[in-house]
Amino acid sequence: MKELRVGMIGYGFMGRTHSNAYKRLTDFFPVQHKPVLKAVCARNAEKARAFADNWGYERIETDWRKLVEAPDIDLIDIGSPNNTHKEIALAAAANGKMVVCEKPLAMTVAEAEEMVAAVEKAGVPNMVWFNYRRVPSIALAKQIVDEGRIGRAFHYRATYLQDWTIAEDVPQGGPGLWRLDADVAGSGVTGDLLAHSIDTAMWLNGPITRVVAKTETFVKERTHVETGKVQPVTIDDACMFLAEFANGSMGTFESTRYARGRKNFNTFEMNGAEGSLYFDLEEPEYLQFFEYRQQQSGKKTESHLTGWRKIHTTNGEHPYMKHYWVPGTCIGYEHTFLNAIADFVMGIESGQPTQPDFRNALQTQRVCDAVLESARTGQWKTTGVEES
User: CB of 282 within 8 A of CB of 265?
Assistant: First the structure.
């Protein structure tokens, strides 16, 4: 097998999920490239060493510039905070490395555009880890939509709710809480959570063209981990927005980190003329589907059997599931990353670029920026999303 030599930047939650995916890839997918964990990079050498020893990386680096220039690295995986994405991606592309990057792609549209230009100029394979596309049930939803079973779309509604920042004594900044620091994260729930919801929505229902939004920061000041000072909190704790899609349908999106009892509550529902879909990440093995057009065939209407069907997405004919277990047995969150890197590697081997690539993720960035600008101005904003 050919080696795919990986340089991982970051050792946090995403570093773990990505590393697990690389290690298990050839156990489940018949690809021609075997990932080799060559190096992990982080500023804290002690923690990087512990991570490398645990996951099997051959060496550590504390300067990402050495990693992107290393001749024994084929792929740079950017799992570090959002404010590092652009600089690392530009350097990696300039050195001819493949680049995979955590979401959101960048801090702003302007940064994302630079990153797209860099990878396209270099001609290097690239991908953004919008892993929820690789949940079999969501991939099945895409298949159902593409088969025309929903018909003309009318509504799309999404929620992404958590509760981990409610306490006022939670600090901001530092390795564990950088998502609460606008200088590092760029935004709060909009870039962290709603970016997932937006990506899924546009994958299923097409471009979002206009938005109007409201954001709120409930705790206005928090102690900063690195300075020890009480500083203003400028990220959005909660965001709600209305959306118009290019196909004429309407959308509602809601996200917050202040929904007591919700840990990672990620749902969507799509309603069309011929049917509806509903998904809940807390039950990822199920997709709910309502089919109406079976009553339009000219045959006797069996209205007493009409209703939502709950599809257990574990059969071999369901997306990705032929690579795993027997029908009725479930795969988990970690497999969404495995499915993603499998698609990426198969894209390298087939010459068909994997989606979402940087250019595709730029469209999600456009919506995120429009949402934040709308919240700032209180006005509808066009997104500038390109129609495919």
Answer: yes
Phi and psi, residue 216, nearest 5°: -145, 140
Its sign, for the CA torsion 201, 370, 14, 227, is negative
What's the confidence (pLDDT) of residue 141? 98
pTM passes above 0.85: yes
Identify the CA nearest to 28 among candidates 275, 371, 343.
343
Phi and psi angles of residue 82, each rounded to the nearest 5 degrees, phi first: -60, -35
pLDDT at 387 over 90: no
| DSSP conformation letters of 22-42 | HHHHHHHS--SEEEEEEEEE-
Side chain identity at residue 168, one-letter code: E
Strands 33-41 and 2-9 turn out to be: parallel
CA distance 340 to 1: 20
- Alpha helices per DSSP H over the chain: 13-28, 45-55, 64-69, 85-94, 109-122, 136-146, 174-177, 182-185, 189, 195-205, 333-350, 358-377
> How does pLDDT run across 258-303, given as a tens digit for each residue?
999 999 999 999 999 999 999 999 999 999 999 986 655 556 566 6
Ordered domains of the chain (ranges, CATH)? 2-130 (3.40.50.720), 132-382 (3.30.360.10)
